[in-house]
Amino acid sequence: MANFNIYHRRDGRWEGRISRGKKENGKRKYQYVIARTKEAVVEKMEDIRINDKPKGHCTKTLSVLFSEWYRSVQHRIKESTAANYAMKAQKHILPSFGDRYVESIVQNDIYSFIEDKQNEGLSNRYVSDIIILMKTIYKYAVRTYQIFNPMDGIVLPKKKSTEIDLLDESEQVKLQKYINQNQNHSTLGIALSMSTGIRIGELCALQWKDIDLEKRILTVRKTMQRIQCPTEISKTKLIITDPKSESSCRKIPIPDCVMGFLRKFKGESRNYVLTGADKPIEPRTMQYRFAKVLKNAKLPSVHFHALRHIFASSCIRLGFDVKALSELLGHSSVEITLNRYVHSSFEQKKEYMKRIKLDF
Fold first, then answer.
1. Other C-beta atoms within 10 Å of 59: how many?
2. Phi, psi angles (nearest 5°) of residue 321
3. Sorting pLDDT into bands at 50, 70 and 90, what band is 233?
4. Residue 174 above 60 pLDDT?
5. Is residue 172 helix, strand or coil?
6. In angstroms, rounded to a whole number, what is the distance separating the alpha carbons of residues 179 and 192?
7. Which residue has the higher pLDDT, 17 or 95?
8. Angle subtended at Cα 222 by Cα 216 and Cα 228, rounded to the nearest 5 degrees
9. What is the pLDDT of residues 344-357, one digit of tens each?
């Protein structure tokens, strides 16, 4: 079956490129379609794809197909992932396409859907996640029923990098002073996040058995999150599960600055660090407590996740090796660390620019 992509040429025209397998030397073969507008290219390529359409047939609606696919994957994915798929389908995909027959949906329908979701105010990143789920469902349909795949060649919306609000260096010092003067289980959690970069879900799931004060090692084994359960009486539930990826399971050396704080509140092995008891608090509650700390300290409102960004930027400023920092943060690649979590202040940029010495 042909796959294609569409490009805007330098001469102002649009070009569609259809993959036609590989040549004898291993290089890919392409069929090209050129037109003055993108819509014209799409139309011509749709005609080509109709001719490439497989001989299979599926008379199911997308709602029925989704249920079939969901049952096939549910047993081999994490509960939180399954809940996320179900939520995206029931909230976004099925209201638009659930009653449509699988083979009646064409690319123009998908692009109109993308535009509608953007107009609703959803971020391009979130819309892309929805489309990727649709692509996965249709791949199952192609494998099972050998049907034409309208998701092939769909271009995902360009993801925009969003700036996260952070505390500047003077505000960070102010927060540290407040924590030092108001030591409790919640401020211990804030101090841990500032000094280790641990995620809020990982922090809420952290038990004292995960902290070895003698060896000075914090081990991330679990994470906590609230997931949606639309088919159950309770619409949501709190779960503690394995971290989001294999790289998220990690050992973090504990810095000296937080050792005294940890020793002061050290509890029983089964107790949770944020409560000092055998019952945890959830991320949403910890976010509320953090917001209260910021208000009491007369600091601007930022999300708890900002502490992780602050930790990463501070480490870079202190000369940490980026690979080591990436592993401390539990990232799967150095690129994620650099692109999402490293922020340099304007004052730091000014200091860097002073190093430029030219003779003019």
1. 9
2. -65, 135
3. low
4. yes
5. helix
6. 11
7. 95
8. 150
9. 666 667 777 788 87
**Token pair of 240, please?**
């503690």
Element (H, E) at 241: strand 236-241
The C-alpha atoms of residue 307 and residue 196 are separated, in whole angstroms, by: 9
Give me the sheet containing 217-220, strands edge to edge.
211-212, 217-220, 250-253
Which pLDDT belongs to residue 53?
A: 57
- The phi, psi pair for 236, rounded to 5°, reads -140, 165
Alpha carbons 315 and 242: distance in angstroms, whole number: 26
- Tokens linked to 222: 């679990």
CA distance 63 to 135: 15
Q: Which residues, 6 or more positions from 21, have their beta carbon under 8 angstroms from its beta carbon?
A: 28, 29
- Rounded CA-CA distance 338/316 in Å is 10
- Residue located via tokens 């979130």: 126
As given in the structure block, the two tokens for residue 127 are 């819309």
**Cα–Cα distance for residue pair 137/67, rounded to 1 Å:** 10
SS3 188: helix
Q: Does the pLDDT of residue 128 top 50, yes or no?
A: yes
**At 4, is the pLDDT very low, low, confident or very high (cuts 50, 70, 90)?**
low
C-alpha angle 109/114/120, rounded to 5°? 125
Residue 287 has pLDDT above 70, yes or no: yes
Report the amino acid identity of residue 313: S
